[in-house]
Amino acid sequence: MSNKRCHVLSHPLVNARLSQLRQTNTNPKDFREGIHDISLILGIEASRDLEEETFQGQTPVGPFTGTTIKPKVGLTPILRAGLGMTDALLSLFPTAAIYHLGLYREKVSLQPVEYYSKLPPVPPIDTCFILDPLVATGGTACAALAMIIDWGVPISKIKLLAVLGSEEGLNHVHAEYPELEIWVAAVDPTLTPDGLISPGLGDTGDRLFNTIRV
Known about the structure:
The chain is α/β, with parallel strands linked by helices. The chain contains 6 helices and 13 strands. The strands form 3 sheets. Strands 1, 4, 5, 6, 7, 8, 9, 10 and 11 form a 9-stranded mixed β-sheet that branches. A two-stranded antiparallel ribbon has the order 2-3. It starts with 5 loop residues before the first strand and ends in a 5-residue tail after the last helix. The mean pLDDT is 93.
């Protein structure tokens, strides 16, 4: 990936956790915990440039100047797999508003279809984190971005967080939204004709919620 706006995590702990997630025999509990752990690291890295404001406080020893996060943060998980990332981000931003977006990919055309959205008329947030564990074709992420931008959040205030992406999918998102900041734990080189990342993780939603058809 030559895109300077796409940040790929390079960390031994992330690599080891992702390798565990890739394994077919990883059970749903361990899969959920792995998605949570990687999402937490993604959230920490993606928030390093958030604006701070200062306040004056008192320790048991003396006064100090502290800081708080200034912007109001909103979390936008793409249903249903994005729910697996939400608790990790909430642990970083406990007061964040959560706006669920229901999007699924039509199996034949591979095009995104919207089925749920309850965004308020005016966005009461300053920064939006879109949570989508897999960016395969990039179509779903682009559809979510269009919804958030139409809602009134500028692209400069949106960050896309993903556990895994395909080169093709991330390039698609970048081509549509070149100013978007993307944070992803790893990138796989191959996208199958069915729109699946290879080697990938499989169906993340099914693995998170233990709904794999035998």
